[in-house]
Amino acid sequence: MTPDEQRALRETAPQGEDRETRIKRLRMRSMRRGTKEMDILLIRFTDAALAELDDARLDSYEALLSENDQDLYRWISGQAAAPAPHQTIVAAIQDIATRG
After folding, report:
1. Closest Cα partner for 92 from 56, 5, 8, 20?
2. What is the number of other CB atoms lying within 10 angstroms of the CB of residue 92?
3. Is 2 strand, coil or helix?
């Protein structure tokens, strides 16, 4: 994610949002997707790793959540390559998804 994309993402986040609130908001967005498959994959990731991500990785994850479920599922399941800005966070999600 470019610095301009990160800045734009921060500008759309609620003003004065602390880290704990942001993580809770991202967790809710992760479990209220359009498909059950994505709910399961993303909630496992949020439970396992979200609190440990630094701000730049949280920005990347938040940007990923703006993508549609069909694309996300294809990227996470390995059916298609994730676009460059999402590759690192998708790889992290894949790692947790395959741990079982």
Report:
1. 56
2. 17
3. coil
Q: Residue 14 domain-assigned?
A: no
State the residue range of the domain holding 85: 19-98
Task: Give the pLDDT confidence score for residue 9 in this predicted structure.
Answer: 52
pTM for this structure?
Answer: 0.82
80 with 74: CB under 8 angstroms? yes
Total domain count, the chain: 1
* Domain-embedded: residue 8: no
Query: Per-residue pLDDT for 68 more than 70?
Result: yes
Alpha carbons 34 and 51: distance in angstroms, whole number = 23
- In whole angstroms, give the CA distance from residue 6 to residue 58: 10
Query: Considering only CA atoms, which of 63, 48, 57 is closest in space to residue 94?
Result: 48
